[in-house]
Design a protein that fits this description.
Blueprint (H helix, E strand, L loop, with lengths): L1 E3 L2 E3 L20 E6 L5 H9 L4 E5 L3 H8 L6 H7 L4 H10 L5 E7 L16 E6 L2 H9 L7 H4 L1 H13 L4 E5 H6 L1 H11 L19
Parallel strand pairs: 3-5, 3-6, 4-5, 6-7
Antiparallel strand pairs: 1-2
C-alpha cells in the first residue's frame, strides 16, 4: 500500500482512480494539480502545456504565500510583482478565466495557507501528485539545510485531499514513481480519469505551441 499522510491508498499503476465518483462530463475542464516540492510537478505541467487547447498556470498562490508569510525565497520580489497577492482575486481568475480551453493549474500545497478559502475546490478536478517522502526529503536536503514539515507540504496535501473528499467530490491520485516507470500508460490513464481525450503531445514536449 502507498500512504498519503495517514490515508492509505491502493497501490499500482491505476492507483489514481481512488475515490472517483460519478461526475458530469464537461467540454472543457479545469484541473488543479496538487503537489509538494521536489516532485515531477513542473515536468507534468509542461506535459499538459504541450496539448492543444490547454492553458497552464504555474503556482498562482505563490505571491500570496510570500506576501502573507514574509518567507525570503529567491526571486521573492519578482514573484510578488508578477502575480496577484490577493488570494480571492487569484481564485476568481482561476474560475473565470477563458472558458474556451482546458485549464491546468499547478499548485504547491504549502502555498495554501489556512487563511485561503477552499470552497472553490468543488469547481475544479483535483489531482494529487505524490512521491515517496524519503525521496522528497533527500532531494530537498540537497538544496536546503533545515527543511521543515511545513516546507514539504505533506500535511497540507493530506488536508486538501480530505477536504475535497468530504465535500463529495471525486479526486485523482497519481504517484510520481508510476509516471517515471510507465510514462505514456500513466498519462493515458490520468487523461481518462480527467475525461480528457488522449493527446500524443502529452509525451512529446513542445510539439504544439502552449496556450498560455
Amino acid at each position: 500500500m502507498s500512504r498519503l499522510g495517514e490515508r492509505t491508498l491502493p497501490i499500482g499503476l491505476f492507483r489514481y482512480s481512488a475515490y472517483r465518483l460519478a461526475e458530469m462530463k464537461e467540454s472543457f475542464v479545469k484541473i488543479a494539480m496538487w503537489s509538494g516540492p521536489r516532485n515531477l510537478s513542473t515536468a507534468l505541467m509542461y506535459s499538459f502545456a504541450s496539448r492543444g487547447y490547454m492553458r497552464v498556470v504555474d503556482e498562482p498562490f505563490y505571491a500570496a504565500y510570500l506576501a502573507q508569510t514574509g518567507v525570503l525565497h529567491p526571486m521573492r520580489d519578482n514573484v510578488i510583482a508578477s502575480q496577484n497577492v490577493d488570494p480571492q482575486a487569484v481564485i476568481k481568475t482561476l474560475l473565470e478565466d477563458d472558458q474556451s480551453v482546458h485549464h491546468y493549474q499547478k499548485h504547491m500545497t504549502q502555498h495554501m495557507l489556512p487563511s485561503i478559502e477552499r470552497d472553490w475546490l468543488t469547481k475544479v478536478k483535483n489531482v494529487f501528485l505524490i512521491r515517496h517522502p524519503a525521496r522528497v526529503l533527500a532531494s530537498w536536503a540537497n538544496k536546503h539545510d533545515t527543511p521543515s514539515l511545513a516546507d514539504i507540504g505533506f500535511e497540507q496535501q493530506l488536508e486538501i485531499f480530505e477536504q475535497v473528499v468530504a465535500q463529495g467530490k471525486s479526486v485523482t491520485v497519481i504517484d510520481a514513481s508510476d509516471i517515471r516507470a510507465h510514462l505514456e500508460a500513466s498519462l493515458r490513464a490520468l487523461c481518462a480519469a480527467l475525461e480528457l481525450e488522449w493527446d500524443p503531445c502529452n509525451v512529446k514536449l513542445g510539439c504544439r505551441p502552449k496556450a498560455v
